[in-house]
TrEMBL record, chain B:
Residues 1-62 form the HTH dtxR-type domain. Gene3D superfamilies: Winged helix-like DNA-binding domain superfamily/Winged helix DNA-binding domain. GO terms for molecular function: DNA binding. This is Metal-dependent transcriptional regulator. The keyword ATP-binding does not apply. Belongs to the DtxR/MntR family. Keywords: DNA-binding, Transcription, Transcription regulation. It comes from the Archaea.
Length: 164, 145
């Protein structure tokens, strides 16, 4: 077994870029899954869930663009959306929710996972004294804003789930 | 993955390799920490009922410890497989070790929905290569350090 460094924090542009790429993939997974659910929901039967999913997909696309702009500043390529979408397509059948409750729960997992990811990332950057090629304040501000929007997403889905 | 989970994963792999209790020295070597640090964390794991220390022999995980260690190992396998197969990272072992502390289990579970992990995971983990034995990498295999 190879030695590891315990609780290593983000110390370079490369590590930061990789984590931002993971963020982009997470957003792409959220977007693609929300689209799948969206297509599967009968709009006349459930306008509320349809609107929730449409908003979620739109918000993920927006987050993805903001992350892409950050990693462009680090001189690193983004992640090809088409490939991720085909991976989601290929695996979706095995992991898709069974009903409306399942769709809402999956959406809650999406929002909670994204929140946790950005929360850990912000904490790791704050704990690091590394200098990055992108402006540190812009980086943290972008990630904190996205984190806040994910927290709002968790509240929205929870509210719908509690009401139903 | 938090520090405790990194220790549990390491103790599990060492005790499987040695087919018996893991010595503090082996654990410290594998984690690249001092034996004193390893002892301190092992003490905490004992307090939480996740590990048992046998004098002059080493550490053995309890049943609860094994469950958590296997979850942690699975999370690690997801990160490696994701880096190698989705992002096409050549140095996926090194990067997985660097990133595991920042990637939470819930995040790994979501990444798991787009990778093709085998049902036998994490029993397919090979400590010699520090990677999943079923992992098919598109590029030439990276030599283990």
């Amino acid at each position: 077994m190879v030695a590891v460094s315990v609780s290593q924090r983000i110390g370079s542009d490369d590590q930061l870029a990789r984590l931002l790429q993971i963020g982009i993939v997470l957003e792409e997974v959220v977007e693609a899954r929300a689209h799948h659910h969206y297509r599967g929901v009968d709009a006349e039967l459930d306008a509320e869930i349809e609107a929730l999913l449409a908003d979620a997909a739109e918000e993920s696309a927006d987050h993805r663009e903001r992350l892409e702009s950050l990693i462009a500043g680090l001189g690193v390529d983004s992640v090809p959306f088409d490939e991720i979408e085909s991976l989601v397509d290929a695996r979706y059948g095995r992991t898709k929710p069974e009903d409306f409750d399942g769709i809402l729960y999956d959406q809650l997992c999406n929002e909670e996972t994204a929140y946790k990811f950005y929360d850990d990332l912000v904490e790791a950057i704050e704990a690091s004294d590394a200098e990055f090629s992108v402006d540190r304040e812009r980086l943290l501000e972008t990630l904190r804003t996205i984190r806040e929007e994910e927290a709002e997403g968790v509240s929205e889905v929870t509210e719908v789930m509690e009401r139903r | 993955m938090n520090t405790a989970d990194q220790y549990l994963k390491t103790i599990y792999v060492v005790q499987e390799q040695e087919d018996g209790p893991a010595s503090t020295g082996s654990i410290a070597d594998a984690l690249d920490v001092s034996p004193a640090s390893a002892n301190e964390m092992i003490g905490k794991l004992e307090e939480r009922g996740l590990a048992e220390h046998e004098k002059y022999k080493g550490v053995r995980l309890t049943d609860d410890g094994i469950i958590r260690a296997r979850d942690a190992l699975q999370t690690y396998c997801i990160i490696e497989r994701f880096l190698a197969n989705v992002l096409g990272v050549e140095e996926f072992r090194e990067e997985a070790r660097e990133l595991e502390a920042v990637i939470d289990d819930t995040v790994a579970d979501r990444l798991d929905t787009i990778i093709d992990r085998q049902p036998e995971c994490p029993d397919c983990f090979d400590p010699e290569t520090d990677a999943c034995a079923c992992l098919e990498v598109a590029m030439a295999p990276v030599e283990s350090e």
